[in-house]
Amino acid sequence: MSPRRTPAPPPGELRDSLPFPKAAKIELANVQQRANLRHATHTIRAKRAQVVGELDDWEALRTAGAQIKDRVLRNLDDYLEQLEASLTAAGATVHWARDAEEANRIVIDLVRATGQDEVVKVKSMATQEIELNEALERAGIAAWETDLAELIVQLGHDRPSHILVPAIHRNRSEVREIFLEEMGTYGEAAPPDLDDEPAHLAAASRSHLREKFLRAKVAVSGANFAVAETGTLVVVESEGNGRMCLTLPETLISVVGIEKIVPTVEDLEVYLQLLPRSSTGERMNPYTSMWTGTTPGDGPQDVHVVLLDNGRTTALADEVGRKALRCIRCSACLNICPVYERVGGHAYGSVYPGPIGAILTPQLRGLGSKVDRSLPFASSLCGACYDVCPVKIPIPELLVHLRHKVVQEKAAHHEVHAETAAMKATSWIFADSRRMEAALKLPSFGGKVLRGRLNHFGPLPYPASLWTTARDVPVPPSESFRDWWARERGGQR
């Protein structure tokens, strides 16, 4: 029997992480991680582009996916009541959780009621969001991650860095070292001669997890979709570990965000085309598991569904920001984002990294911390994330919307920042053409003095250093556009 404990998580909550600019600077120095991320994201997005290109109606599917989600969000209260009724009629027990603390308490109480001290888990962003594993650990309950990438993260005492591939920042040599060092502490050890061939690493994980699958009496899952009409929950995955968790245990507890609803089973036709192509670059998921309550003699006989709010109704109240709740957690925006590709997921201080995390996390958690206030600025606004989003979330628009909220929040608290002062000074200059013309002569003068001596400035003194430590500042041209125009066009305006 393996020890009844899980690898201890890193101390501290994610919201206590460094703000994005500081965290990103640290992550940029990790050369191996940057190489791993570049290889992985380019591979996935190339596969996505190929399978998306096969569909003539891809844009119509994207529009349909967005419209179905918007209909749900406009009528969420009705659909939630319908879902509860359908789940109850199918033999499931429904629990409502306002926040992470309430959701964790419900799950812990349900596990304790079974007399068990361990659970097996299907990969779930919702349970990561509420830090369920840590809460279970404090309650003396071991939570075993069964997804291969999640297993790597857990055994490595690490944190996920990607929505779809949590261990994307690790290469296979690093995975081999983790398996050799850690597996034996928490179950069956890895073979001592284990190499870094992917097939051999996968075989070691299967052997390590099999004893856990066979003895587990309780499983915890999330859900990709919840069908209001029938009470059907849907999980899509690529390894079969989800199928093991959803069928073998006696008790199944599913933690589901309230935005995961789709109205009917027919609506799944849209999302089961959009999701696999956008996430793994596949035409369909290898495993699509659907279950509706309980069935006598088949599968778990004690089924619970915890419907999780945890900031979602707050996001719903924002007519612009609520579009982030369309998200189906495909991670296409991460794989295309030039910022994420270079800094990785840990810099975002959230289980939702990348462009979607930059708009979803501040809405779920609020703008109370420096981490959350920094996230809307973790983007170049290039727009690539919108182009690949399967449900047409206008991420750049939402980033600007949240940036405005951050500025309003600072103003409401009378916070004085160099950026605010600079903007006020610029506004004063732009308000008068004579001041504007005088201001433009200064860079030109500097350009004439420095021309031929420097190609660019180094970091400028504070507060300009906040911008220039990560950017080359070019030497101003020796002639402004206004001067050139006056010389070429004889002063015509």
Automatic annotation (TrEMBL):
Matches recorded under PROSITE patterns: 4FE4S_FER_1 (PS00198)
Q: Which InterPro entries does the UniProt entry name for this protein?
A: 4Fe4S_Fe-S-bd (IPR017896), 4Fe4S_Fe_S_CS (IPR017900), FTHF_cligase-like_sf (IPR024185), Helical_ferredxn (IPR009051), LUD_dom (IPR003741), LutB/LldF (IPR004452), LutB_C (IPR024569), NagB/RpiA_transferase-like (IPR037171)
> Domain 4Fe-4S ferredoxin-type: where?
324-393
Q: For the Lactate utilization protein B C-terminal domain, which residue ranges apply?
A: 404-488
What Pfam families does the record tag this protein with?
Answer: Fer4_8, LUD_dom, LutB_C
The family database entries (Gene3D superfamilies) matched by this protein are listed as: Alpha-helical ferredoxin (1.10.1060.10), NagB/RpiA/CoA transferase-like (3.40.50.10420)
The name under which this protein is listed is Iron-sulfur cluster-binding protein
- Species of the source: Arsenicicoccus piscis
* Taxonomic classification: Bacteria, Bacillati, Actinomycetota, Actinomycetes, Micrococcales
